[in-house]
Specification:
By secondary structure, the protein is of the alpha/beta class. The chain is about 35% helix and about 25% strand. The chain has a 9-stranded mixed β-sheet with strand order 4-5-3-6-2-8-9-10-15, with helices on both faces. It has a 4-stranded parallel β-sheet with strand order 12-11-13-14, with helices on both faces. A two-stranded parallel sheet has the order 1-7. Strand 9, helix 8 and strand 10 form a beta-alpha-beta unit. It is globular, with a radius of gyration of 20 Å.
């Protein structure tokens, strides 16, 4: 699916993808039928999402916001669909919850932020009520910019400054869930624009998107970058991941002391089989790798018994660092928490 993020499509690729262009029209028509929010949570609600299908870094942004709420003494709950999980019932995630019952992202959030409540389920409105019953005084909706059934007090629109729109086309022809202008109008004065990967060369479209967001009344932008959270040494590493934008993970590692000798990518949220891991170890050994590096989200999906080597499978911890926009973030959180 790398074509979704290309900004320079050759004519042969455009012709080959014409059937998807027709499907994009149907997707746009279905999106236009969405109804506005009808339920207001008993506690402040903050939504974190993006206008594209994956890859902007919304879950790290959600975790950063939750971390700041916890630092303020708030009892914060993260509400998620639990994409890719087994089962459909509502669930309160604990440290002992298997990842495939919670979903990889909720499991990772609970692992990184054990003090936060984490709930998964199909209806965010029901989850918000349950979270409040459990003592939450603020809820954070992960990946919910297009989820309109629950009103929110703050919409955080996350965009990758280095490639905010991919090829600029709607799903499934491109990565767009909706047009940025539509998201900005809906968020309005209760919105905050958050740019990620601001340490990379900036896409020429980002400047006009920032201007459009400001015109619509959004605060910000908050500008941020991802960085490895621990020294990695000078190991020879073979990379693998099942995420939306694996090239970003590879670029992050190539900017460290690690010597990358090879890589293999899987579909987003891929469930690793014993066969997959055996093939990865053979490929790594053939390239002389001493370690298999993957993302924290991927490691959640690999049983602890399958991680020892040779070569060992390890996650590269990544933190989000804010470069500018601290005041905009603080004022947006203040306004959301003070519902009046």
């Amino acid at each position: 699916m790398r074509f979704l993020w290309r900004t320079d499509e050759p004519l042969w690729l455009e012709a080959a993808l014409l059937p998807l262009s027709a499907a994009s029209l149907a997707y746009a028509a279905a999106s236009a039928l969405r109804r506005p929010a009808a339920f207001r949570a008993p506690v402040p609600a903050i939504s974190v999402g993006n206008v594209v299908a994956g890859g902007a870094g919304k879950t790290p942004v959600a975790m950063e916001i939750v971390s700041r709420l916890l630092e303020r003494g708030r009892t914060a709950a993260v509400l998620s669909r639990g994409y890719g999980r087994r089962g459909r019932g509502d669930l309160v995630v604990t440290a002992a919850t298997p990842w495939d019952a919670a979903g990889d992202e909720p499991a990772l959030v609970k692992q990184r932020l054990p003090a936060a409540l984490v709930l998964v389920g199909a209806r965010r409105a029901a989850l918000a009520e349950r979270a409040a019953d459990l003592g939450a005084d603020v809820v954070v909706l992960d990946d919910a910019l297009q989820h309109l059934s629950l009103a929110r007090d703050l919409d955080v629109v996350v965009m990758d400054a280095s490639n905010p729109l991919g090829n600029g086309k709607r799903l499934p022809r491109g990565p767009l869930r909706e047009r940025p202008a539509s998201a900005f109008r809906r968020a309005g004065k209760r919105g905050l624009l958050w740019l990620t990967r601001c340490d990379l060369p900036r896409d020429g479209r980002t400047t006009s998107l920032v201007a459009a967001a400001r015109e619509a009344g959004l605060r910000g932008p908050v500008e941020s970058a991802f960085e490895t959270a621990a020294p990695l040494g000078k190991e020879s590493a073979f990379l693998f991941a099942g995420v939306a934008r694996p090239a970003s993970f590879e670029a992050l590692l190539r900017g460290t002391s690690v010597r990358v000798v090879g890589a293999r990518w899987f579909p987003d949220h891929h469930r690793y089989s014993t066969r997959d891991l055996r093939a990865l170890r053979l490929a790594a050994a053939a390239q002389g790798a001493s370690v298999l590096f993957t993302t924290e989200k991927d490691l959640v999906r690999i049983p602890a018994s399958d991680r020892p080597g040779p070569p060992v499978i390890e996650a590269v911890p990544v933190d989000l660092r804010i470069l500018s926009g601290e005041d905009a973030l603080a004022s947006a959180l203040d306004a959301a928490l003070d519902r009046g």
